[in-house]
């Protein structure tokens, strides 16, 4: 069974491949993502390759092998089921459940994960809107949506997913109802600047810097004739 460190690397590679549409993941990206040095990441890529978990080309990055993807998806499933359970049953906030799930994800069995899924009614997404792999490690197909920065002024957008790794950012977004399944009205979009949205029930608008808005994904709401609302 892979070590927890190897599992962390495989999950990180999977998440970066997902973010960048299957592109090879470079050591510099992994180093930044996991907060390690570039030489450490390079050494681990060699270890992952020697164990058959990735296909690695120096200077060109790595992609998961079939076995590496299986290990990564199992960990992703554990993590997202734990987030869903901790939020639903113990009242964890959107902003702090990620770190707790990170601590637990390596230590539950497939049987326990199946029990969590059954207790929760086989959810297809976690509290941040990310898809939960099935017990056979298939990822439910669903639109990922677009980053908020891609929408036009006046559009109504349903939030599908928010990035789950920045606790302070999640606290900020949650306090302003910029969370999955919430409808937002795009009030203004400044090129390379602020994006202003209005959540439901709020008298005041919320201004999001472009680098924050890029971490929120949504889909445009359309009326019955296919026109953007």
Automatic annotation (TrEMBL):
* Positions of region (Disordered): 122-143
Q: Name one Pfam family in it.
A: Fe_dep_repress
Question: PROSITE patterns in the record, alphabetically?
Answer: HTH_DTXR
A single Gene Ontology MF term assigned here is:
protein dimerization activity
Cellular location(s): Cytoplasm
- The membrane spanning regions, by residue number, are none
Q: Which domain of life is it from?
A: Archaea
- Which keywords appear in this protein's UniProt record, sorted alphabetically? DNA-binding, Iron, Transcription, Transcription regulation
InterPro entries from the xrefs? DtxR_MntR_Metal-Reg, Fe-transptr_FeoA-like, Fe_dep_repressor, Fe_dep_repressor_sf, FeoA_core_dom, HTH_DTXR, Iron_dep_repressor, Transcriptional_repressor_C
Q: Which family does it belong to?
A: Belongs to the DtxR/MntR family.
Could you tell me what this protein is called? Answer: Metal-dependent transcriptional regulator
| Source organism of the structure | Natrarchaeobius chitinivorans
């Amino acid at each position: 069974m892979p070590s927890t460190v190897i599992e962390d690397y495989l999950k990180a590679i999977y998440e970066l491949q997902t973010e960048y549409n299957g592109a090879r993941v470079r050591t510099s990206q992994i180093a930044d993502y996991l907060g390690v040095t570039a030489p450490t990441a390079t050494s681990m890529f060699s270890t992952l390759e020697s164990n058959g978990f990735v296909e690695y080309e120096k200077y060109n990055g790595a992609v998961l092998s079939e076995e590496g993807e299986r290990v990564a998806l199992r960990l992703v499933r554990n993590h997202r089921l734990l987030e869903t359970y901790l939020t639903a049953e113990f009242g964890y906030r959107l902003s702090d459940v990620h770190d707790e799930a990170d601590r637990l994800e390596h230590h539950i069995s497939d049987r326990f994960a199946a029990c969590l899924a059954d207790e929760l009614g086989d959810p297809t997404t976690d509290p941040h809107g990310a898809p939960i792999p099935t017990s056979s490690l298939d990822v439910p197909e669903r639109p990922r949506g677009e980053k908020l920065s891609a929408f036009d002024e006046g559009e109504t957008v349903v939030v599908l997913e928010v990035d789950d790794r920045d606790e302070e950012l999640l606290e900020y977004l949650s306090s302003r109802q910029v969370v999955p399944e919430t409808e937002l009205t795009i009030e203004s979009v400044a090129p390379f600047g602020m994006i202003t949205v209005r959540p439901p029930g709020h008298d005041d608008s919320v201004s999001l810097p472009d680098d924050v808005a890029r971490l929120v994904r949504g889909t445009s709401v359309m009326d019955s004739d296919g026109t953007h609302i």
